[in-house]
Write a structure and sequence with these properties.
mainly alpha
Length: 407
């Protein structure tokens, strides 16, 4: 989802800076929906992998079936609640009526696909839990390509499509997500059965899903709280800083993409081997993943210093915004490499079924340290102080993550 927002932003940037700002304002809500879907999906993923490793097929079937039912319920609730609160949420961060109206236009449409998002993510995690990573990759690529192809057609009115502006971007996103879900549904059979006879709620199953899923959801939802808080701090300087923060988080999805892929790969491996009692193999998987993630983040930092102007220029042509964005990317990227420690520890803990320790790492990373640091540094150093809070937070959190994982 983050990848698509980044690509979508390049098209909307050609529409206007107001459209980009609107997208940035809606992003926390979209991230919240994705976070709940992915969080519960991680709980399902970890449970299936563990019980398959422990040779408990029936329990794995129950987790898959009841997990899908829960994802549908979550999607319905999110559609209702987020749509009802969208306007009030937007007014808290922008007084620009044009920007808010564009955000409402985009938000109301993408929220209609909440059930599709949560259900699609659940299928993705189920396929990953049984080692069907290629199916997961293929379905996601197809959804992404459809979204990317439809974006310019529906935004600018090319071919048979009318020019729908930011509404077209929302529809393109929804259609792409629907395509991903359909491919999962019609994909090859998997080693777990999704049947009505496994739908009866079981306390052990529900508890297992939520024991990992709720902390993982909070883990992923915390960036929404962080972005909203930073938007409030940065809007006191200029709305251009809010736009730059939105651009950064779109670029971040590309930079963290490979690292997150590695983490998604190790969760079922760790869960399965832990369930089978292969603890030495679990430790080897962790060390290998940590080395790979640190390498990926080092490459991300290098790119952020070599071509920052070109990266920011994908989303805006305003020279002042690009200048602000280059400074922000330079400062924030100092924390990329060390952030790999926290990311890897969190993923490994989730694979082990240890959702609460993983959440503690995220809480420190996204709330306890960075928000007060951004407020304090912002008062002392101005907007650049807000950017400085990122690497400081990553360094402190990495130390805490290593200690927690070792314990």
């Amino acid at each position: 989802h983050g990848r698509l927002l980044g690509i979508e932003g390049t098209f909307l940037a050609k529409l206007s800076e107001e459209a980009m700002t609107a997208l940035a304002l809606v992003y926390p809500i979209q991230n919240l929906i994705t976070a709940i879907g992915v969080g519960i999906g991680i709980g399902i993923n970890a449970g299936i992998a563990y019980y398959l490793g422990a040779k408990k097929q029936t329990t794995a079937n129950q987790i898959a079936t009841q997990g899908i039912a829960l994802s549908v319920l979550h999607g319905i609730l999110l559609t209702v609640l987020c749509t009802a609160g969208l306007w009030k949420f937007l007014k808290g961060f922008s007084a620009d009526l044009e920007v808010n109206l564009m955000a409402i236009t985009y938000g109301n449409r993408v929220l209609l696909f909440s059930v599709v998002i949560t259900l699609g993510i659940t299928f993705e995690k189920i396929f990953q839990s049984v080692g069907k990573m290629k199916v997961s990759m293929f379905s996601m690529i197809c959804g992404c390509l459809i979204n990317i192809l439809l974006d310019p057609l529906m935004i600018f009115g090319i071919g048979p499509f009318p020019a729908m502006g930011i509404a077209g971007a929302a529809y393109a996103t929804g259609i792409g997500q629907t395509a991903t879900l359909l491919i999962f549904y019609f994909a090859d059979p998997i080693p777990v059965k999704i049947q009505l006879k496994y739908l009866k709620p079981e306390k052990q199953v529900i508890s297992r899903i939520y024991a990992v899923g709720i902390p993982a959801t909070l883990n992923m939802a915390l960036p929404s709280l962080l972005i909203s808080s930073l938007n409030g701090i940065l809007s006191g300087f200029s709305e251009k800083y809010v736009l730059v923060l939105g651009v950064y988080y779109k670029l971040q999805t590309f930079i963290y993409l490979s690292a997150n892929g590695i983490i998604q790969g190790i969760r079922p491996l760790i869960g399965y081997n832990y369930g089978a009692g292969e603890k030495k193999r679990v430790e080897k998987i962790f060390r290998t993943a940590l080395g790979l993630v640190l390498g990926v983040m080092a490459a991300g930092m290098l790119i952020s210093w070599l071509i920052p102007g070109k990266l920011i220029g994908l989303f805006t042509v305003n020279e002042e915004t690009i200048r602000i964005g280059i400074t922000a990317l330079h400062i924030i990227s100092f924390g990329f490499i060390v952030s790999g420690v926290s990311v890897t520890c969190s993923g490994a803990l989730e694979g082990l079924g240890k959702g609460t320790p993983s959440f503690c790492i995220a809480l420190l990373r996204y709330v306890i340290v960075i928000i007060p640091a951004a407020f304090l540094f912002g008062k002392i150093l101005g907007a650049n102080g807000v950017w400085l809070a990122f690497p400081v937070t990553e360094a402190l959190t990495a130390v805490f993550a290593i200690i927690l994982y070792q314990r």
